[in-house]
Fold this sequence. Notes:
Layout: E1 5-20, E2 25-27, E3 31-32, E4 36-45, E5 49-59, E6 67-74, E7 79-85, E8 90-97, E9 103-115
Antiparallel strand pairs: 1-9, 2-8, 3-8, 4-7, 4-9, 5-6, 5-8
Amino acid sequence: MEVSMPSVISEVIIPLQTSVGPGGRFQSQEFDVSGTQSISVNVSITNVNPTIKRTIFFGPSPNGGFQPARVDAFQTSNHLLTSLPTHGPKMFVVVENTGLTAMNCDGWLYGVRLVP
């Protein structure tokens, strides 16, 4: 009988001070979150700015696509820490700037995986 041992996922998903210009978009690489029940995603920007939004995607679906699981804007805070159930074996994050001001962002992924 195999015993599961927890393993911690702690990954930089957006490098420090990544600039997202006006009309710009940053997409992280895909991260393996298989074996987790939930994950936490933390994304920060320089200042509060409702024209910047963060979307967390999970997948792939049977047709290879990824679906948005959570979309938030930086309306009242310059950081978004979100914990949510894992909806697929992989995830990535997109930060979009629909405003007129460039903004720096960064982000991390945390989770606990059960490994046989």
